[in-house]
Specification:
Strand 4, helix 2 and strand 5 form a beta-alpha-beta unit. The two termini are 21 Å apart. The protein has a five-stranded mixed sheet. The chain is of the alpha+beta class. The N terminus is likely disordered. The protein contains four helices and five strands; from the N terminus they run αββββαβαα. It is globular, with a radius of gyration of 13 Å.
């Protein structure tokens, strides 16, 4: 699991901003990367709905950093994550050791 310090460091490095239901990166007043989620299961689960990164920034690991930021927040709050978006579904499938403890299991 990611520590809070690591999450904070990534937010500092990437300058992620946070609003309820999303983390995002802005450049020149334009959102260039974001991950969105809703709270389900009586507040016990985040359902990650979408992950978007501007084509000019792809391949730099930004989507993974956004995902891991939400994972760290969920871990800190003892909340599970349901992978709805295809990117997150693939990340969970390809990295079970990293995400299995946080993944929502109905």
């Amino acid at each position: 699991m990611l520590s809070y310090a690591l999450k904070t460091e990534w937010r500092k490095i990437m300058d992620f901003q946070h609003e309820p239901g999303r983390y995002f990166l802005q450049q020149n007043d334009k959102t260039v990367a974001e991950i969105t989620y809703t709270t389900i299961n009586n507040g016990q689960t985040y359902a990650i709905n979408a992950t978007n990164v501007d084509p000019s920034l792809r391949g730099q690991g930004i989507a993974t950093k956004l995902l891991d930021t939400v994972v760290a927040e969920a871990h800190d709050k003892h909340i599970s994550i349901k992978a709805v978006c295809p990117y997150v579904q693939k990340a969970f499938a390809n990295n079970p050791a990293k995400y299995q403890k946080i993944e929502y299991k109905p």
